[in-house]
Design goal:
single chain; mainly alpha; flat
Length: 86
């Protein structure tokens, strides 16, 4: 578990940031929210939050809803290509 004071301090640290932030705490959950039991509740909240903030969901049926080209991958890699030499 992450102490409440630590969570709130991290949230407050982004107060002057241009980033869109929100604080949502899930009771009785550990640090691994997306792999612990109850992950679907967390995932549902995240998807709803993203939609409310204008971010489109990506699904297997429509992996590119906005018609954007996928980020090219490094040859033989599953990771997006970075700057040369990376």
């Amino acid at each position: 578990m992450i102490p409440d004071a630590v969570t709130r301090a991290a949230y407050k640290a982004y107060g002057d940031s241009a980033a869109v932030t929100d604080l949502k705490q899930f009771a009785d959950r550990g640090h691994s929210l997306v792999i612990d039991s109850g992950w679907r509740t967390v995932a549902g909240y995240v998807l709803a939050w993203l939609a409310a903030n204008g971010v489109e969901a990506v699904t297997e049926e429509d992996p590119d809803p906005a018609g954007r080209a996928a980020t090219p991958l490094r040859s033989g890699s599953e990771h997006p290509a970075g700057p040369p030499g990376c």
